[in-house]
Amino acid sequence: MTFSATLFEGRRAIVMGGTSGIGAGTALRLAELGANVLAVGLQAAGKHAPVHDRIRCIELDVTDGPALQAVLSKEISIDVLVNCAGISRDRAEYELDVFQHVLDVNLTSIMRACSLAVPALIHARGCIVNVASMFSTFGSADRPAYAASKGGVVQLTKSLAQSYAAAKVRVNAVAPGWITTPLSEGLARDEEASRRIMDRTPLGHWGQPADVADAIVFLCSPAAGYITGVTLPVDGGYLTV
Asked: Which of the following is catalytic: 94, 146, 226, 238?
């Protein structure tokens, strides 16, 4: 770990989708660096949920507006908001109801969370990091809603960065590549598919949630104090090929 252990000491962080995968890894990293973290998501008591003295996990569907409002309205000051909730339904996304649900989880929930949290973020002069994807850059015949939603995350990040800048709230995003998570574990176990992916990845290995978490920590830190509206790839060089 290259960050000071007290980097976020006394700070309040909320991680949407923080009970599994990249979100859980981010919640854990923020807690290790001193933040008091609220991890929001499904299966909050499940095997993938982060465990730390400074993390509280709560069960919540990010598409449930009233429930999310009830949680965020209690927050007076938020230093860090990470929007990491995401799903993919592969080719079922060509069904319009499935397409809409994926957008609701991956994109609309971000706008909802930001809108509800912005008073507390302004109070703390906090920051937001949204989780996009390498699929923000190119489409996918297998997952049209996922690719569309993640492209939308990039543009929403730019728009909110412009809107919130006057209030000194920074908004950035990360775009993970092939990361080992519960969402990708089936693909990672497919030796042939995984080999093709690694053949295109210059660094030659799958990423871990901690790799993305560290990029998020940087964007939330004072070292990124003059950075807003960017999307930082965390993909082992996949997009360079």
From this structure: 146
